[in-house]
Amino acid sequence: MKATITLALLVLATTCYWEVVQTCSSIEQRYKFTNSDIYVRLRRGAKLQYELMKGTSSLQTVTLDNFVTSSDLELTSTGSYKLSDGTSSIEFTLVQSGVVSGTGSDITHIKVARNDVAAGSQPRDCFTLDQSEIHWFSGPEQKAHYWPVERQQHSNYSYLPKELDNFGVGERYWLNSNGVFIFVESNTPLFIDQNTGDYKNKLCLSATAALPYDSRVTSSKFVYHIGLGKNAKAAHKYAVKTFLGQPTGYPDERIVQYPIWSTWALYSRDIDDAVVREFAQNIVDNGFENSQLEIDDDWEICYGALTFRESKFPNITKLVEDVKEMGFRVTLWIHPFINKDCVDIYQEALELGYLVLDHAGDPSTQWWNSETAAATAIDFTKPEAQEWFTKRLVRLQKEHGIDSFKFDAGETSWLPPDPVLQASESDIISPLQAVGDYVRTVASFGAMVEVRSGQGTQDLPIFVRIVDKDSEWGWNNGLVTLITSLLQMNLNGYPFVLPDMIGGNGYDDSPPNKELFLRWLQANVFMPALQFSFVPWTFDDEAIEITKNFTALHAEYAPYIIKQFKRAVETGEPVNAPLWWVAPEDKVAQGIYDEFLLGDDIIAAPVIIEGATKRDIYLPEGQWTDGNNADTVYTGPIWIMDYSAPLNTLPYFIRVGFEMD
Ligand SMILES: *[C@@H]1O[C@H](CO)[C@@H](O)[C@H](O)[C@H]1NC(C)=O
Ligand SMILES: *[C@@H]1O[C@H](CO)[C@@H](O)[C@H](O)[C@H]1NC(C)=O
Ligand SMILES: *[C@@H]1O[C@H](CO)[C@@H](O)[C@H](O)[C@H]1NC(C)=O
User: Fold this and answer.
1) Pairing between β-strand 105-118 and β-strand 337-339 as defined by DSSP bridges
2) Span from the CA of 122 to the centroid of ligand 1 (angstroms)
3) Cα dihedral sign for 611, 616, 620, 622?
4) 518-533: pLDDT as tens digits
5) Among 125, 154, 191, 198, which residue has the most ligand 1 atoms within 8 Å of its CB, making it the best to mutate?
6) Residue span of the signal peptide, if any (predicted)?
7) 64-119 pLDDT per residue, tens
8) In a mutational test of the pocket of ligand 2, which residue from 273, 277, 310, 315 has the highest number of ligand atoms less than 8 Å from its CB?
9) What percent of the chain has pLDDT over 70?
10) pLDDT per residue as tens digits for the range 290-346
11) What band does 19 get if pLDDT is binned at 50, 70 and 90?
12) Residue 29: predicted pLDDT
């Protein structure tokens, strides 16, 4: 009895220590949700904080950066709690408390909602990143794609798919190694601050009705959810069930097994009938398999015409026929733009009302294949525009025998600034709607489709491509970021990741050298699909042989990749997860960024450092057979130091008991 009292006093004393402004009697403001042991507690220090608690244990503390009030929480008729500063209010609702099946964990889920953010204000709620103790995952796709993501830096960063930083996919979702997740609703005009200015070691969410969101509204929403499970895996499983969704089917199996061959990185826009024939012939002559040959930019008479330029492709029907005869399927690069110099189709789309306009009625925008204000974007938030675009593509397929398409772009920054869009179901007009509507429209072309942007489209059975990588090794959009982008996409709920061209895109006339090309291929082997454009026969015979060996290794494991696709459809689990997925409490595994899992049974640890011929490898708990030497079995957790990996070697490990399918 006495011990309990002492403990209670101690708890109170610690609390008092934190609170310098208020007296101890006013700080113990804990508000219990009915029929639960979950509390919201207000802490009045230099800034107002709220702390979510389960009994006496703290679940998460959040600092209200610019919300000042001396009010208490008020219980509402629905059992939620409301905190008001006189003009606006925050409502806390307990959504879930208890064991949730499929997660194997007790889950606490609280919704934090402001429904009345006044124009001109920008409320901001901050989470401590606690970098020395915990790791953070998910968040946006980035060029400098640090992982775990607590190292990323953002300043008043509008959070929606955009060209800047290669932000193609980024759900409003973060997860940490303590088992906490944050999910922000799409109705929120979200900005984030992370590790910059006053927000060092913090991740802050804020909302304001400003561009690139609709700046005309007089009041906006700022709604997010905090979930807690016993660890990151349990929390993520709940987030998948509740917010992210899971795929309803999986993409084409032949793309998993055999490489895509794209004209893009190798030939750039200098393609024509002869180039495509030569490319196809070289692939066949060098003894490589294919899933398809992709005709990339530049094939149209003008951008948006969806008609082949006859000076380059005198008879595309015949070309496609002949290339198919050689054993290929043929796909075509497509973008969602119409350049103004494509006069006929531009006029048609404008008159039909199928272009995105700004509020002055101007459709002008630009992209990487136009001058400033010389292009327009099709309005995929309009069903009639979707249908019109789809029909024109179907015609292209029927006339020329094109099997499927690579759909580029889709990010919000390609729209005219301050666009007029059709209202979504939730009646919030957000540029996010345009991303999802584009991706859903093009997904109707089936299992061979690839896109490179996404927004709430995890359910679609299509590949999502990582945005163009550069032919570099490092964090500057180089090889290491191939792995970190893979992990990020998987934890955003997009498991059918299509890595971009092997060796990077070779932009600025810097193609990959042999070493970078081969290390890139190795890193790609245990990812869902291989996509070549640079080719090994421009190097030497050794490069061809090593490329053949790893292409074969990938094909050998295709059944296991497809098995993981099926698992993703059934359970929403990642295909390529970070190592901690099989050891959620393992502190070392939580911090690893240069190894990854395929399913639960394969660990890939590619060499991603220039000049390196060995590397250190961490294996979490379990028994792991060395993929390069079946006689060696490691028992994790273990560090293998200086694992030898000359240029023909990819370190990988297979769980004892592994089954291919
Ligand atoms: C954040 O950016 C938006 C859009 O540019 C702007 O309206 C807002 O004032 C900025 N907030 C801060 C704190 O700088
Ligand atoms: C193009 O090729 C197709 C298929 O071989 C053929 O039927 C057609 O006549 C050709 N068109 C022209 C204009 O030569
Ligand atoms: C490619 O694989 C074959 C068969 O396993 C092997 O004998 C050969 O040494 C490999 N080539 C290279 C360059 O590693």
Assistant:
1) unpaired
2) 8
3) positive
4) 999 999 999 999 999 9
5) 191
6) 1-18
7) 999 999 999 999 999 999 999 998 999 999 999 999 999 999 999 999 999 999 99
8) 315
9) 95
10) 999 999 999 999 999 999 999 999 999 999 999 999 999 999 999 999 999 999 999
11) very low
12) 79
CA-based nearest residue to 362, from 350, 370, 344: 350
Closest-lying ligand 3 atom to the alpha carbon of residue 548: 1
- Which one of the ligands is nearest to 322 CA? 2
When pLDDT is cut at 50, 70 and 90, the band that residue 424 belongs to is low
- Quote the pTM value: 0.95
Contact 109, 242 (CB under 8 A): yes
**Helices 316-325, 383-400: inter-axial angle, 10-degree rounding:** 70
In the chain the domains, ranked by start, together with CATH numbers, are: 2-244 (2.70.98), 579-655 (2.60.40.1180)
> Strands 450-451 and 463-465: what pairing?
parallel
- Residue whose Cα lies nearest atom 10 of ligand 1: it is 156
Query: Cα dihedral angle (621, 623, 625, 631), rounded to 10 degrees?
Result: 130
Give yes or no for residue 208 CB within 6 A of ligand 1.
yes
**Which ligand is nearest the CA of 556, by number?**
3
Q: What are the tokens at 465?
A: 């491509």
* 272 CB neighbour count, 10 Å cutoff: 17
Regarding the beta carbon of 211 and ligand 1, being less than 6 Å apart is answered yes
Q: How far is the CA of 342 from the centre of ligand 2 (A)?
A: 26
Q: Is 84 exposed, middle or buried (0-12, 13-18, 19+ CB in 10 A)?
A: middle
Distance, CA of 243 to CA of 139 (rounded, Å): 14
**Minimum-distance ligand to the CA of 543?**
3
What pLDDT shows up at residue 28?
58
